[in-house]
C-alpha cells in the first residue's frame, strides 16, 4: 500500500511521535509512506515526500510537527478537495492518515466519501474529540498550563492578589478544568459552567474580607475579556488583580511520555486498520483500550464534561 500522512489544524506536542509511529509501522508491514507538507494545503498542491525510517529518527521528543501544518478553510469546497484527490491519484497514494482535530476529521470524512481511504488520529491540545478519552497533545499542554499557574500562584500569594489565567481549548473546557483542579484554583470557568460574573465578584469580596491571601481564577479562552474582568474584580472586591493569557506557549514543547505513548499506540493502530481495508474511521483510546469510531459518529458525539471533576472543584476550593 502507498499511504500518505499529514498533520492539520493547530499543532500539538506528540504529533511527531504519531508521524514516526505511522511511518515505522507502515514500513514494517512493507508499505510505502509519503509525508504531506502543511496539511490539506500541501495535499492540494501535491507536496509529497517518500519517508524512510531515518526520516523520522530523533523526532519523538520534539514538539510541533516536522510535516508542518495549516488551516485551509477552502477545503470544505468539493472542487478544492477534487484537486487533492487528483494529486493522490497521480502519485498512486490510495490511503491517507490525517492527524488533527475535529476540522481535520471533517476533511478526512469528506475525502473518504470521495473514494480515498482515510483514518483520523486525534492530535490537538484541546481534548475536544469525544471518541478518545485523550487527544495527543492534551497531556503536554496541561503540564505547561499547570507549571505556569503554579508560578502565577507564587506571585499572587506573595502580593495578596487575585490572578485570572486564560487557558486555551477553543470550545472545550478540559484544559481549564484539569489545570485548575491540578493547581487548586478557587474558580474555574468554562463553556460548560458559564461565567456568573456577579457571583464571582461577590464571592471574591467575601473571601478577601475573610482574610484569604489570594485567589486563582482559571478561565477558558473565548469567554470574556480577561483584562476587563481583572479591572472589575479590582474595583469591586478590593483584591489587586492581574490577568494573564497563557496563549501559544501551551501548544509547544517536548511531549510528555503520556502523549508519546498515546501517539505510538494510535499511529500503530491506524496503520493496522488500513491494512484491514478500513476507512472513514478515527482511532482513540477509551478506558485504556484502542478503539475505532466512524468519523461521522465521532463528529456528532458530544463532549460530556466530567461532572465528577466539576463537583470536586466546588468541594476542594
Ligand atoms: N467541514 C470541513 N470540510 C472539509 N475540510 C474541513 C472542514 N472543516 C475543517 N476542514 C479542514 O481541516 C483544517 C483543520 O481544521 P481546524 O478546525 O482548523 O483544526 P483542527 O483539525 O485541529 O480542529 C481546516 O483548515 C480545513 O482545511
Ligand atoms: O492557531 P490559531 O489559528 O490562532 O488557533 C487557536 C486555536 O488553536 C488551538 O490552540 C488548537 O485548536 P485546534 O486543534 O482545533 O486547531 C485552540 O486551543 C485555539 O482556540
Ligand atoms: Mg479543533
UniProtKB/TrEMBL annotation:
GO biological process, one term: canonical glycolysis
Reactions it catalyzes: beta-D-fructose 6-phosphate + ATP = beta-D-fructose 1,6-bisphosphate + ADP + H(+)
InterPro entries: ATP_PFK, ATP_PFK_prok-type, PFKA_ATP_prok, Phosphofructokinase_dom, PKF_sf
Phosphofructokinase domain residues: 2-274
Chain residues that bind substrate: 124-126, 161, 168-170, 221, 242, 248-251
Top-rank taxon: Bacteria
Cofactor dependency: Mg(2+)
Residue positions binding ADP: 20-24, 153, 184-186
Main subcellular location of this protein, as a coarse class: cytoplasm
Record flagged with keyword Flavoprotein: no
Residues that, per the record, bind Mg(2+): 102
Active site: residue positions: 126 (proton acceptor)
Activity modulation comment: Allosterically activated by ADP and other diphosphonucleosides, and allosterically inhibited by phosphoenolpyruvate.
Similarity comment text for this entry: Belongs to the phosphofructokinase type A (PFKA) family. ATP-dependent PFK group I subfamily. Prokaryotic clade 'B1' sub-subfamily.
Protein name: ATP-dependent 6-phosphofructokinase
Species per Swiss-Prot/TrEMBL record: Anaeroplasma bactoclasticum
